Amino acid sequence: MVESLSSSWKTILQVQSSDPDEAWREYIFRVLLVMMGVTLSGFLLLISVGWIVGIFEPYSVGIMLALNVFLGLSYWMVGQGRWRRARIIPIAIFYLMGVYGSAANGIATNLNIFYVLVIFLTAVLFDRQMQLRMLLLCLIAPVAMELIFDPLEIIHNDDLESMLSSTITLAGLLIGISLLVGFVVERMQAALQKANAYAQELSSEMKERQQAVQALAESEAKYRNIIESIPIGMHMYRLEEDGRLVFSGSNPTADEILGVDNSQFIGKTIEEAFPALVETQIPEMYRWVASDGIGWETEQIDYEDDKIVGAFEVHAFQNSPGRMVAAFLDVTERKQALETQERLVAIMEATSDVVSTANINKKIQYINLSGRQLLRVDENEDVSSISWGMFYPSNSKSIVENEAIPTAIKEGVWS
Question: Region 96-110: what's the mean pLDDT?
Fold first, then answer.
């Protein structure tokens, strides 16, 4: 029941106007209709009971019934979206009640309050021009009713003076109220315009903030997608105010390279997460990157603990103030290949045999120590200009070029 009444109330007060100035007039009119509907319905019920018990005449019931019918017409017009035309009906009802009071009781009557209501409602629901018109009608009506219903008595001086005095008093009252109400309504409209301007500015600002937040979220999502899909391991750190460098995240490639779940390190300091780095310069270099924003890199870091073993190439950079990223690659295999190459070079340099390498264009690339001594070539001298024919007799050229080299290229060895 309560929900049904609440829904009906919202429906009745639902404003259709898009213009702010019109919208508040429509809202006030809808509220006025509800108030008048409840009031007139109550009066109709009371007067009907009074007529049954003999207190009121039948025409009183008829008047109240007619007023309710006119109000119902207003409800119907508002429902059809014609609230601008419907708003004249409540004003007309109050005006007619004021005219009835003037006709029944003369100029000096308490029912002049209805003229006051007419002026007030006109100022709220219409513009200043309409308010002045209704003010003029409210001033004319009492005098006109007095002249129509009591024309003979006002000929006497006493009655004429009384009528003029009452007319002046009523005119002053209505004009004063009209000016006061007009002033208040203008101030209300000005305040409403300021409120609407502020609301629009606030709405625009909130929209811009929402767009900025959405753009930031999209940017972060793209950044995260790149981080998660890039074939390079990444560790993220944040620098706390007390100088602690705390592990804040990683990408899937980091798990694959290190062979561990890096999420276990989140919230730990770099020294706690990777204890083997304590005796190195890495923690301090990372703090420097996070605080100053200057990049740092190294071609190889050897790391070993009970979970992780390997050699890594590291590039560290700041991704935001107080935060940094360490991007790394596993260079263990490259390190092993270099070590193997170094051992092979050492063997070739130590042997008394001549060892030389050349490309497919027959350009000499390397000659070992024994070969340089044999050819009397200095250690740092360029050997690319030396002909490879110097390493075999001229009568063996056909065998070397047509058999030895093709076989070595194809099978890897020839002897």
Answer: 77
Q: What tokens appear for 244 in the block?
A: 């602690």
List, in order, residues 6 or more apart from 166 with CB less than 8 Å away: 106, 107, 108, 142
Alpha-carbon torsion angle 283, 284, 289, 294, nearest 10 = -140
Query: Contact, 254 vs 234, CB < 8 A?
Result: yes
Q: Taking residues 282-297, report their average pLDDT.
A: 93
Give the helix/strand (H/E) hosting 239. strand 233-239
Both tokens of 114, joined, read 């209805």
The burial of 94, by beta-carbon neighbours within 10 Å (0-12 exposed, 13-18 middle, 19 or more buried), is given as: buried
pLDDT exceeds 60 at position 34: yes
Whether 136 shows a pLDDT value over 60: the answer reads yes
Can you tell me the mean pLDDT for 42-48?
86
Give the separation between CA 132 and CA 128, rounded to whole angstroms.
6
DSSP 8-state assignment for residue 402:
I
Statement: the pTM of the whole predicted model exceeds 0.85: no
User: Given this model, what pLDDT does residue 382 score?
Assistant: 79
In terms of Cβ atoms closer than 10 Å to its own Cβ (0-12, 13-18, 19+), residue 276 is middle
Q: Which residue in the block uniquely carries the two structure tokens 């109330």? A: 9
| Residues 28, 33: Cα–Cα separation, whole Å | 9
| Dist CA 148 CA 103 (whole Å) | 8
Give the model's confidence band at 162: pLDDT under 50 very low, under 70 low, under 90 confident, else very high: low
Q: Which burial class, exposed, middle or buried, applies to 162 when counting CB atoms under 10 A from its CB (0-12, 13-18, 19+)?
A: middle
Q: What is the pLDDT of residues 241-262, one digit of tens each?
A: 999 999 999 999 999 999 999 9
From the number of C-beta atoms within 10 Å of its C-beta (0-12, 13-18, 19+), residue 333 rates as exposed
| Nearest in space to 103 (alpha carbons), one of 54, 43, 69, 149 | 149
Assess whether pLDDT exceeds 50 at residue 113: yes
Token pair in block for residue 370:
């024994």
Beta bridge partners of 323: 238, 320
139 class by beta-carbon count within 10 Å (0-12 exposed, 13-18 middle, 19+ buried): middle
Greatest mean pLDDT among 288-292, 328-332, 350-354? 288-292
* Structure-token pair, residue 311: 């050699």
How far apart CA 247 and CA 261 sit, in angstroms, is 13
- Whether 142 and 170 have beta carbons less than 8 Å apart is answered as yes
